[in-house]
């Protein structure tokens, strides 16, 4: 069962059950303040929060949603001949239909212009604060506006693994150099090392992005800004045109050229990075300790499956942790699935623990934005201050060196008030039972000459004999 917590303008109808098909899964909150305290404590105690967002978090930035009474899917737009709903313009068939392509390009132009000029909402800033405190494990968004990047979050799909290069035969080396034992990453500086090891995205757009165009043939990407407003017909790819021009100049066979299309994932097509996103989801399923679903009606099957798997994994892990010997400490209010939306979505029973029926931005300003402020204040108050040690005073017996440092230098010159240099005289004070003895270090000049003995004098006077020259002996011939 899900605890229903109506706030703001929805609190007046708290006694009446919500008029939704899934109202049988809901129970009214007995104590709203206590339930809100449990929710906030759950967010405070969690360290790996997964957030699933929908169009409801961007409506305050003047970006329309899709399924509300004023959403895009309820507006009729012109599609060449006759009228039709905007939902048809988000199907992959519109790319190959000349009558639907012009209306599709106009719709993308309108949404891209709004996304470029829009500013992040308070909930986007709350996501940034979660990431700044290290609590945001991942944000899976159904929006294509990219407002998360404007608050400093990394938005994108996981980097694809590098393709393995073909093996080449190399000569066997019988010796090992010292350089072979060094990790190549250690030879890089910090900037190069950060570029070598790519960071995982914090926000994964499940439905693509509206800020880029890609070629249907060579998959080259281009920012959408220079192409606004989009041409009503097919937009040629500059990369394919350049390649075709080069091949014609080289008299080579021409190849097929592609067209530019928006990187928004349309109905009827799969996400090109679906496998990579699935790998990230599998990792997050093992680490999540709190799930927050905001601003979505959960009508997309893929998003509904994502929330279902996250909720079941979260409740399963929380159930086993609560039975461990560290259950009370490991629990800490974690393991909750929190839904923040103005209407009840189509989810199964038991997946959501709390439904906060409120305006998203108002609840963010009144409640969520104060979580990090309170945590920062608690850290400042509860940080154990290391007591400053008082300086210990040690008393040692005096040494001759320390006594000499305290005595005035007798050779120092003092200048009197008249400007004449006065040599201070040494004054000695008599001490009881002890006399000061001035120690004079003898110098070679001050030492007296020692008397030499008679033998030493004779040794100095007697000259050293010089050897006599030897005459060569001549050969006697007999």
UniProtKB/TrEMBL annotation:
Belongs to the sirtuin family. Class I subfamily. Zn(2+) binds at residues 215, 218, 237, 240. The active site is at 207 (proton acceptor). Residues 151-182, 399-478 are annotated as: Disordered. It is found in: Mitochondrion. The keyword Zinc applies. GO terms for biological process: negative regulation of transcription by RNA polymerase II; pericentric heterochromatin formation; regulation of DNA repair; replication-born double-strand break repair via sister chromatid exchange. Residues 29-380 form the Deacetylase sirtuin-type domain. It holds the Pfam family SIR2. GO terms for cellular component: mating-type region heterochromatin; mitochondrion; nucleus. Keywords: Metal-binding, Mitochondrion, NAD, Transferase, Transit peptide, Zinc. PANTHER family: NAD-DEPENDENT HISTONE DEACETYLASE HST4, NAD-DEPENDENT PROTEIN DEACYLASE SIRTUIN-5, MITOCHONDRIAL-RELATED. The keyword Glycoprotein does not apply. This is Deacetylase sirtuin-type domain-containing protein. One of its GO terms (molecular function) is histone deacetylase activity, NAD-dependent. The lineage of its organism: Eukaryota, Fungi, Dikarya, Basidiomycota, Agaricomycotina.
